[in-house]
């Protein structure tokens, strides 16, 4: 029997979690794990109890903020961190698996919460058409281990 690596399992889960997103623009999933155990999960979308963008604004998504971003969206990694903290689970020393590299604002949160490693599938810079992954650069500068996922997604039925 060929046993999959935990990195493969958790990235596959992040990809499948992204399918839960109500965002019109981009589906992103995240898994927080420590010591081979999942401690939290998340996907991008509006705060619980507000509007689901794909239902309320099905054609164009939620209204834009002053910088052109989603006015309601909480990023997948933010949701995973917030859920853990809300349930009194420490994320310090954890590894974050995410389908899109973190933006600079999320990277500040990741660093501040003591997450020690980030593995991402796709580049935020490539998605946004900007020169570099500022969030990745920030995390590396301050000692967080960051790697682009290089494994094989064998058990994902649909990539978003």
TrEMBL record:
Keywords: Hydrolase, Metal-binding, Zinc. Residues 5-145 form the CMP/dCMP-type deaminase domain. The keyword Transmembrane does not apply. The keyword Metal-binding applies. It holds the Pfam family dCMP_cyt_deam_1. Gene3D superfamilies: Cytidine Deaminase, domain 2. Its cofactor is Zn(2+). PROSITE patterns: CYT_DCMP_DEAMINASES_1, CYT_DCMP_DEAMINASES_2. It comes from the Bacteria. Belongs to the cytidine and deoxycytidylate deaminase family. This is dCMP deaminase family protein. The lineage of its organism: Bacteria, Pseudomonadati, Bacteroidota, Cytophagia, Cytophagales.
């Amino acid at each position: 029997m060929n046993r999959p690596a935990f990195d493969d399992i958790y990235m596959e889960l992040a990809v499948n979690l992204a399918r839960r997103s109500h965002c019109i623009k981009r589906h992103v999933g995240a898994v927080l794990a420590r010591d081979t155990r999942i401690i939290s999960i998340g996907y991008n979308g509006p705060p619980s109890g507000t509007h689901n963008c794909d239902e309320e604004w099905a054609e164009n998504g939620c209204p834009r903020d002053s910088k052109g971003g989603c006015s309601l969206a909480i990023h997948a990694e933010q949701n995973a961190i917030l859920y853990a903290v809300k349930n009194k689970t420490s994320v310090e020393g954890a590894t974050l698996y995410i389908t899109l590299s973190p933006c600079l604002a999320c990277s500040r949160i990741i660093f501040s919460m003591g997450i020690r490693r980030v593995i991402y599938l796709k580049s935020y810079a490539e998605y946004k058409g900007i020169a570099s992954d500022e969030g990745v650069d920030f995390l590396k500068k301050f000692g967080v281990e960051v790697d682009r996922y290089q494994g094989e997604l064998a058990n994902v039925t649909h990539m978003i």
